[in-house]
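Troubleshooting: if your tokenizer reports a length mismatch, compare your output against this known-good record of 178 residues.
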Amino acid sequence: MIIARDRSALQELYYSYHPRLSRFLSRTTQRKEIIDEAINDTFWVIWNSAGSFRGHSRISTWIMGIAYRCTLKALRRSDYGVAVDDLSPLASDEGARRQQDAQDLHDWIDEAMQRLSPEQSTSIELAYYHGYSCTEIADIMRCNSATVKSRLLRARQKLRVLLPRLGEPAAGPHLDGA
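Known-good structure output:
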């Protein structure tokens, strides 16, 4: 039990939540050092304040809320921007094509998500990628459910406009000899 300062319990929690937190936080920043710092800070907070968890929400909601706030603090402390992942090439042409298609889709969605406010993109992430309810998102982001619903509505409206525009081929000069 973490509240009793059981290091093995913290280690077990860390290993079970680390991949989930990494995926969640990578939506906010691609900087591995920022993600690692936020995750470490998250577990430091958990270690020091496990007694403050009252069970009014799921433990995962409490942990995601801590991680979200730790990430915002880490980003404020840093001067880093968003970096793009480098994917290692696959051996086959078909595999490389599929990988490129997946990367293009990922980039397209990320481009649209980056044009949302941080609150909107985090709300979308928590709702659609992690399956949290509006009430749970409100707990994580420390706001009310109506605010979350409003953020989700505005984010979906923006995405409805942004995604088709971002999917259009880039207009540029034509090199047809003219």
